[in-house]
Amino acid sequence: GAVVSQHPSRVICKSGTSVKIECRSLDFQATTMFWYRQFPKQSLMLMATSNEGSKATYEQGVEKDKFLINHASLTLSTLTVTSAHPEDSSFYICSARDIMEGPYEQYFGPGTRLTVT
Amino acid sequence: DAKTTQPPSMDCAEGRAANLPCNHSTISGNEYVYWYRQIHSQGPQYIIHGLKNNETNEMASLIITEDRKSSTLILPHATLRDTAVYYCIVRVINFGNEKLTFGTGTRLTIIP
Fold first, then answer.
1. Residues linked to residue A58 through DSSP beta bridges, in sequence order
2. Least CA distance to A109: which residue of chain B?
């Protein structure tokens, strides 16, 4: 089946620094990738939709200058949390859509747990 | 996408069938019913989806009522590894709009 990986799986950073999270589709091409955020005991909230070669579309309330998304190839999207603060501590999950498999399923990565101290 | 309603939690004995209900009374004719689950601290996992007919795969069965206003996910022989949060999502299959809107889901606990 389709596999999506994320790196790193866990990261601890100091307040004010930036953190980059990678999302890769390992065995398929993904024109579209999605980034979600999940706080403890809450559901997943979509942050942005990322299309290869174009600018990401952010959901209402998500700061695009704080959460930089780059989708430079069909197998890699990155999320950079800039000037991280403790309230950015969360579980970040990406998903990727396999363009060859209908009806356009999304496959999820294992998530990245970010802790900002 | 239509809104769904699920019970917040359920218990099921190991080896028994787990039946997870979902109400989607405002579902449109072109919206599919999808089920995902999320085991603690992992990404969601696709389980099954359907439009009108009942569906079965190696993981589960999906029963959709004739009026399509509700559905039930059935795990036929629950194991401890099925303990997870189960999300019922209704969505349109549209090349230009692939958003998944996650509700609060049902926390299923399998009891030994």
1. A48
2. B43
Quick check: A46 and A59 in contact, CB under 8 A?
Answer: yes
Residue-wise DSSP of B4-67? -B--SEEEEETTSPEEEEEE-TT--TTEEEEEEEE-TTS--EEEEEESSS-EE-SS-EEEE-TT
- Say whether pLDDT at A102 is over 60: no
At A35-72, the pLDDT tens digits run: 999 999 899 999 999 888 888 999 999 999 999 999 88
**Could you read off the pLDDT of A25-44 as tens digits, one per residue?**
998 888 889 999 999 989 99
Residues of A in Cβ contact (< 8 Å) with B46 = 105-108
- At A2-23, the pLDDT tens digits run 899 999 999 999 999 999 999 9
A-chain CB neighbours of B86 within 8 Å are none
